[in-house]
Amino acid sequence: MTDNELDQKRAAAARTFDVRRVIGGLFTVYGVIITAVGVFDGQEEIAKAEGVRINLWMGLGMLALGLLFLAWQWLRPAETPESPAQEQ
């Protein structure tokens, strides 16, 4: 393997395991699920929350936060750590 191929694999691994991707993905998926639950809440669930559609609002908040993390990861990608051979 050449140095260029190793650098490309290292960059791909850094992007794959970026914690912003994991957090953003989880918040986005859970946000979609909670928002869908909130849209279909019945009167009993809304009455429990004193008239607030809490599932809808929290789902939208989680969705926005997840998309914010994913946008951050996309706009400012992780930098690849330098290999030990390059540091010398």
TrEMBL record:
Entry keyword Transmembrane helix: yes
Membrane-crossing residues?
Answer: 22-42, 54-75
**Which keywords belong to this entry?**
Membrane, Transmembrane, Transmembrane helix
Which top-rank group of organisms is this from?
Bacteria
What is the protein named? ABC-type branched-subunit amino acid transport system permease subunit
